[in-house]
Design a protein that fits this description.
Length: 280
């Protein structure tokens, strides 16, 4: 990956990559630890590109929660529970998906076989590196989704699928990979379709914005981060999404961070730059 900051050092909008990524390498250690992390020894085995006629934020919001899986992926992946990752620092957020195995294969792909490929951890996490990259990591692999806006209503999605080098050398890897690629294609296609439906709903003259569900904690964090950075073009790097997380049905709030967010929203509303509340 190559990360670029368009602002020069000395500009209030400038932020070094290490600061932007915060402690992601510690919180998601099995994959991103600088020394022991599995991602250090992975290779990209396949790329796929999709073009979707909707704004990139619809697609990004979809990746922030598993609330939609029981409906959008009802006949393919099925429902998925999710909990917030622990409080963290940096311009990123993540949800943890409990599972008994890698979540990539479809339910009937490897019936009775827990590990079609060697597992190196027992966790699954969907990490969003703001504003427009998601890295999903599970027991035996990870996959990356990069969103590239081509305009207000068109987005290019680049998917990258990565496995440890030793896994790629497994004699049955190519056969297993076809099942994994099938699962990824089904999931992305279903997500793209529902995002197009969301676009239609948002454009309706009868639409009235509603509240976030308690299951949309990741989407709420993404929207708050977006508001804090872009509402009036000012540099508002002080708000930290990882300091405001949900634990179960209870909101766990860092008062200082919430006060920063409230101030940003209040100022935007007074100036007419924001016509809705980003908070719950």
């Amino acid at each position: 990956f190559i990360f670029v900051c368009a602002a020069a050092p000395g500009d209030p909008r400038y932020k070094p990559l290490k600061e932007a990524l915060g402690n992601i390498s510690q919180v998601l250690e099995p994959w991103f630890d600088p020394i022991k992390g599995a991602a250090n020894n992975m290779v990209c085995v396949k790329r796929r590109t999709y073009t979707v006629e909707c704004n990139w934020k619809f697609l990004m919001e979809n990746t922030c929660e598993t609330y939609h899986t029981s409906v959008v992926h009802k006949n393919s992946l099925g429902p998925m529970a999710a909990t917030p990752v622990e409080p963290h620092d940096g311009d990123w957020d993540a949800v943890v998906v409990p599972s008994e195995r890698s979540i990539v294969p479809l339910p009937d792909d490897f019936s009775g076989k827990q590990f079609p490929l060697p597992a190196f951890t027992d966790k699954t996490a969907f990490a969003n590196v703001f504003p427009s990259t998601q890295i999903n990591a599970t027991w035996d692999c990870l996959w990356v989704m990069r969103l590239l806006p081509l305009g207000p209503s068109t987005t290019e999605i680049e998917m990258m699928f990565c496995f440890p080098r030793d896994t790629v050398k497994e004699p049955d890897f190519n056969g297993v990979l076809q099942h994994y690629l099938k699962r990824w294609h089904i999931a992305v296609t279903e997500d793209n379709t529902i995002s197009l439906n969301q676009k239609k709903g948002v454009m309706s003259p009868f639409r009235v914005p509603g509240r976030f569900s308690h299951l949309e904690f990741g989407t709420h964090n993404f929207n708050n981060w977006l508001v804090s950075r872009t509402v009036d073009g000012a540099a508002r790097n002080g708000w930290n999404p990882g300091r405001r997380v949900f634990i179960g049905q209870v909101v766990k709030v860092d008062d200082a961070e919430q006060q920063k967010m409230n101030k940003v929203i209040d100022e935007a509303e007074k100036s007419g730059l924001l016509t809705f509340r980003a908070g719950l």
